[in-house]
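Form 7-S
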Amino acid sequence: MNLTLEGKTALVTGAGKGIGRQIALTLAEYGADIILNYRSLKADIEETQDEIQRLGRKVLLCSCDVTDLKAVKQMTEQGIQEFGRFDILVNNAGITKDNLLMRMSEEEFDAVLDTNLKGTFYCIQAVSKQMLKQRSGRIINLSSVSGILGNAGQANYCASKAGVIGLTKSAAREFASRGITVNAVAPGFIDTDMTAKLSDKIQKDILERIPMGQFGSTKDIAWTVAFLASDMARYITGQVISVDGGMAM
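Output:
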């Protein structure tokens, strides 16, 4: 069996750049039509739109803050009007507001939990209604190695990503009998604009903690998501797949 997503429609949140952008492009390469969600970065999202269209795939842009339940519902309604169905949901939208726990403000804690965890919940709730009618669907949530191991200075981020794991397992149990799988991908340190800004010393320290001795690429994450979105992963649900070079083993 070849990995194909022909005839499928995928919603990817936080698709403006980095991992989200690569996931959207990779799903399109495997044949899916794409709904690109973004909150800002309009120029970046339009560039991604152009690339997907060059692949011969349909694409819909949806500007939406995933922390706004009403806006999320409008986005899903727009997607159904355009494509008639949802086959794949990738919850990638996320933010960081790092600080030491003793100095972390309530705003910093709430903002990260609202986007990373509550936003994921909102999107699952909205999209799953259509998937339940179809009795089929693939939901892939982006967690993090930080949600498994913890990380100093990221109490809010780690809590949100650990929460995504619990949410994934609960949703997987609720939806399994309706042909919907729910899994999580937990990236390690990935070569993105964010890691590029780290000092040489910090990068060296991180690499020493990774058994494979290198950062991952956005394609490593996207390929894993594409597999989980395909029929090849039809019997996998409630799982957390770490793509981290062995960091969390």
